Structures are given as C-alpha cells and as structure tokens.
Fold these 2 entries.
Entry 1:
Amino acid sequence: MILTKSKLITFSLLVTISLLPFFGQAQSQSAYKVKTIVIDAGHGGHDSGAKGHQTLEKHLALQVALKLGKLIEAELPGVKVLYTRKTDEFVELYKRIYYANDNHADLFISIHCNSGGVSRVTSRNKKGKRVTSSVLNTSAKGTETLVSGYGRLGEQDAAIRENASLLLESNYKDNYQGFDPKDPESYIVFSLMKNQFRDQSIKLASYMQNEYVKSGRTNRGVWEKSLAVLARAGMPAVLTEIGFISNPAEEEFMMTDAGQNEITQNLLNAIKTFKRSVER
C-alpha cells in the first residue's frame, strides 16, 4: 500500500469530521458524566480468537462482558449498559465502535483474552528424522490494558493479532479506508486517528491495571496499540486482556465463577474510580 500525501490528508480530514460531534463533550470536562457504557465482548461467531486447552477466547470474553454489565447496572444506578454482542455472533470491528459512537457512549470497554503465541520447535523422531512442530507458550501470564495508539513497529504484535479479525470481514478495505493489518505502513495512517479522549483512556486503563494488581494478578502494564476496534472511538476506550488463555492455570481461573467475579469486580472498581475522577 502506497500512502501519498493527498491520501493522508484526505484520511485525516475524514477522521476529524467523524469525531466532530464529540469535541464539545471533551472540551467541557466538568460537564462530562458517565451515563452510558458500551461493553464489547471480543471476537465471536466464526472468529474464535485465541484458543486455550479447554475453551475459546470468544466464549470467555462474552461471559465476562455479560457479568460486568449486570454488575454495573446493580451498583451504578442510572448508568446505561449496552453490548456490541450478547450471543456468539461475529460483529465487524468497525461496527462495534460505530455502535458506541451512535449511542453517544461515555465509555467503551472491550474484553479479550491474551495468548502467549506458538513457537516452532525442531526435534528428531524415533527414526532420527528432523521434525518441526508447533508448541504453545504456556508460561506467559498476567493482565494488560490497551489504548489506541500507533507505537513502534517492534511493539505491534498484539495489534496485528487483534486486527487480524479484519480479514474475516468481507469488505474490510472499504470499511477501514484501505487499512491492511499485514502492512506496517498502515499503522502510520492509524496514528492520524488520535482522539481527544486519549488521556482519559490511559487513566481508565491504569485504574484497571491497579485493580488487577490489588487482586494479585501479574501487571503487564498499559500499552498504546493500533487497534482497529478503538481507533475511531469518540469517548474514552480501552481493550483489556483479562489473562492468558494459553496458560492452563489462568485459563482455569477465567473459566470459573470465582475468577470471573474477581475480574468483573476489578473492572467495576476501576470504572467507579474513573467516574469519580471525571465527575467531581
């Protein structure tokens, strides 16, 4: 993909125009209230996401998303909760954030599970022949929360993995103005999608990580990544990786009611802290 100056300017203008309805909200910090929260369960349908030994990312993400929504409604009266999906269905990434923008959401929270990835290992079989096999990394653990950004090329692994869902959409090049998740130059374009809620997104992400740490989870930090699902957010937006599905212990934890209750309580506490900080 060749990015000409005219294309970059045109793309930048399109993004700016799409965010104009939200400029007033950002400029009036004192009037900002958290009234509507959109919860996004990552992946779904034919897009299973990361695979564990016992389950799939799409299932865990949905279970946690639905529990978090019920908890918010129970403990934050007056806050409306909306979901990008409530069943095992595939929803295009651009439709998820458009849904949040169209409903004037004040927060967008995307729930995902991490994966340690696969390594290629070469060994010899009983006949002495060299054999290459794929081995799942089961040692990686912990939580991390992502906000929209472009980062450096060497830090794009998580972004490329999540954005790979774009390729499952029939018209992804039209929906994302030619963005190709396999083309590093496309992340330059995504860097133009900076929005005025960056600071609030980082704040919310930090609160989430702080709550995870209080529960004894390993803190992998807050990262800026070029994630398609966050790029056009007209509100504070984060993607939180609640644990490694490739790690048997963390997968088991995320599958249990106790584990999911702990995770959703962590997220609720972070939302409460963020809400108090912006509404005071």
Note: Residues 1-30, 152-156 have pLDDT under 50 and may be disordered.
Entry 2:
Amino acid sequence: MKITNYGGIVTAILAPDRDGNFANVVAGFESIDDYVKDGAFLGALVGPYANRIANGRFAIGDTVYELEQNSGTNNLHSASAGINKKCWQVVTDSNDTVATLTLSLDCADGEGGFPGTRHIEAVYALNNDNEVLLTMTVNSTAKSPLSLTSHSYFNLAGSGDVLAHKVMINAGRFTPVGPEFVPTGELQEVSGTPFDFRKLKPVGQDIGADDAQIRAGSGYDHNFVLDTFPADEDEPAAQVVDETSGRVMTVWTNTPGIQFYSANGLSGASGDTATFTDDGALCLEPQAFPDTPNQPSFPLGWVEPGEAHVTRIKYGFSTQ
C-alpha cells in the first residue's frame, strides 16, 4: 500500500488475484503535480465535511455560518478548506503483525467558514490479514459540522471498467436527491428500485434504468442508509467482487451512510501520468449523510467540543 502525506492520499493498493498475480486496485497518478491539479479527490482523505452542504450555509443556534460555494450554490467536500489538499504531519511504525502510518493536522477556526479549531488524526493500519483499518479522530474547540471519509476509486480488475463488478450494500434505504444533488430529506426504500444492492448485483445491471434518480446522477452517486449503523464489526457495510480475477473487497464502518459513486465522470479526472475512463472504477465512501447540518433528522454530522469524534473504516481484501 502506498500513501502520500499530501491529502493523506492512497496512491496504490497492490492486491493478488486468485492465482497470486498482483495489480493496483485503486486509480491514481504517478506525479504529485497531477494530484495537486486533481478535482476528483482520487484516493484522498476528505473533510472536514465530506459531500454537500446546501447553499453553502448552516446555522448553530442563531448564528449562521457562510461557506464557499464550489458546486453550484453548494459547498462540496469543504471547498478550499478541504483536508485533501493539505500536507499532513507523519509518524510511521511497524511490528510483525501491522504497519501503521499516523497523519495529523489542524484545521483553523473560521477556515472556509467552519467554526472551531479542529485537530484531526488519521491512522492507516495494514495488517497480516490483508486488512486496511483507517481510524480518524477529531477534537474541536467548538461545535462544527464533521463528516470524514476516504475517497479511493477501486477497480478490482486493475483495468477496464467496473460494470461487471458485483456490489453489495447493506442498506434498505437511500437518500434521494433534488436539485443540485442535495438530499430531499426523505429516506426512500431501495426495494423495487435500481438502488437495491442488498444482495450482490453487477454495477451495470440497472445503471441505465429509466429512473429519475439514476438520470440525475448519470448513474450512481447517492448516499445509502446503512443497516449496520452504529455497529461497525458485526456485519460488513458493503462488498465488491470481481469474478474474473477473484478479488474481493469487504468494507466495515461505524458511519450512518455510505456514498456509492460509479465514477460516471471519471474520464475528466485524467492527468499527465494516468488516463481514466467513465465507469473505470467505483467509490464506496463511508460518511455522515450529505447536508446533515441542514437536516435535523439526519444522524451524526457534528463534532462537539470536549468530545473525541471517531470514524472507523476497514477494508478487507481476499480472493474467491
């Protein structure tokens, strides 16, 4: 596994197929210059608030906070305050069972419009069971919106598109979106819709369905309401299977939601050192629901002063 302290970006994960042949299963670049220019968040840690905050504003009590609007009228992935474009401090360690990389930084009070000085520590741990555990801990001096995630683009075949990859998402509901891709506030049942991934299903099976939500995202780019929340070890939140190579990736998390993005616009992320195609990878981003600061019924999405906020994501790699 390769990680850079710029953005905490995962630049490569080398995983074997069923015959022991290794391939890089994440989309990435060979040049830091490409990552600096990248607007698709390839492999990056994302926050302090991942996904969208409607109209670039939210309120805490009577105080209204104005954020940058970098996606239409919305704030997406925290705009210029994003941790994906910061250099993190690094400490490494290893023993016979696990190698760890500890990244840390501070987000200043008022940066990008967000309140509170927030100290973030992200620990990547790779163990001998082919599991990657990402633990992100945040402490803040003030109440502030918080949703951290990892934005790796996975292709378990190592090349080509992922339309034949089978995906399971342990979610009976999802959050449909309205204008500018902000959740309406509804929790819609997946049953009978193209969003039913409760059993393994090819990504491409329903990606062209005559469905308003599919058309809105030109495929999948939606938050799923995880049935595993808040437990993070009992059942996997999601799984991806590439039957050709035999590679399997299983995801566990303690977050209430997970964004499934079928990389419908990935070709636009191509750089000088790598060329990508639409549907050439997929993202599964554990997170708080989009726009939680403006949706009182949505769970979590905040860090409180004096309380450590911990986000856990585990990726297990295996073969079948």
Note: The mean pLDDT is 97.
